[in-house]
Amino acid sequence: MVTQPQPDCLVVGSGIAGVCAALFIQQGGARVAIVDPDEPGMGASFGNAGIVVNTKTKPVFAGLTARTLFAMLRDPASPLNVRWSQFLGLSPWFLKMLANANPRDVRRITDALGNLCRSGEEIYRELWRDAGMGDLVRARGSLALNLTEEERDRDWDGPLAAFRAAGVPMERVGPADIRALAPVAPRYAAGVYSPDFQHTTSPKDFVATLFRLFVAQGGLSVRTRVDGVQVRDGKAVGLQTAHGVVPGGSVVLAAGVGTAKLAAGLGEAVPHQAVGGYHVMLGAPGIVLETPLLPLDFRFAITPMRDGIRLAGTYEFGGAARPPTQAKIDDMLRHVATVLPGIDNRATSTWRGFRSYLPDALPVIGASRTVERLHYLFGLSSSGMINSAAAGRALAKMWHGAAPDFDMSPYAIERFH
Ligand SMILES: Cc1cc2nc3c(=O)[nH]c(=O)nc-3n(C[C@H](O)[C@H](O)[C@H](O)COP(=O)(O)OP(=O)(O)OC[C@H]3O[C@@H](n4cnc5c(N)ncnc54)[C@H](O)[C@@H]3O)c2cc1C
Question: Which of 19, 178, 217, 293 has the least CB density, counted as fewest CB within 10 Å?
Answer without folding.
Answer: 217
